[in-house]
């Protein structure tokens, strides 16, 4: 029997009787991070890293039963030892280490290896079996250092100001938006944000995260406030009437998908910044290698391609079907 199994409800540990990031309601759910495809409503009990607790309550309701634990703290459930290891994906994100009878499995959730300065950096874990994402599991996806990316973003903002345009940056409302704000806070004096970004931002500020103040855009926001402004909005705002008030503006999309130039053209963006909170091809390979896992299970993304590559290079790997996805695709918050 496998320590972790892939079922129609999610990744299940029968020995401990709990699920990791289940996509159907279960009694006991261990959550890797607060994105909607990994943390869903309807579970009886939730377990997650401390920083994820307020984000889960914000998304799922303040009345959910949730226990927060620190990174590396051990929790024993029915004789199975659990610990949460930093994943570096976003604030509070964790890999789930499961240890039972001398066998160790790690379910990574989503992760990136580059330290963004805000979330706790990714830590590799030695294990017998590793469950990895493969959102960007193709060789074409190789990220530049974030210092270069943010330098390019700030130069774009400066050029827009010279042209008398607002700079509208599209980024996931939870995770990517905070990364942008954190990295630009010493270069930009004022941020205007969409409501879908303002709400989790207020929650994180209340928890002590060192993020800059933002101004929420409302129907009463004067049009003159948008002139030369830096505006951050979720991807769902791209084709929405909400954006018309910001004219004239230049539109920039922050996403790993911008690695493929055609994606920027198809989305009518003025600029595409290859900024991702997921590991690139090299990062995925490094993470897998550092686990020394004898077998690897590859989930959402280019799972078949990545699993085949691992197998051809001496690592037993197989693709598995899950309900996980990409935050940019599944999130659709209203303005």
Automatic annotation (TrEMBL):
MF annotations from Gene Ontology: exonuclease activity; ligase activity; RNA endonuclease activity
Enzyme class: hydrolase
Annotated TM spans: none
Keyword annotations: Exonuclease, Hydrolase, Ligase, Nuclease
EC number: 3.1.-.-
NCBIfam families, sorted: Xnuc_lig_assoc
Protein name: Ligase-associated DNA damage response exonuclease
UniProt source species: Chitinophaga silvatica
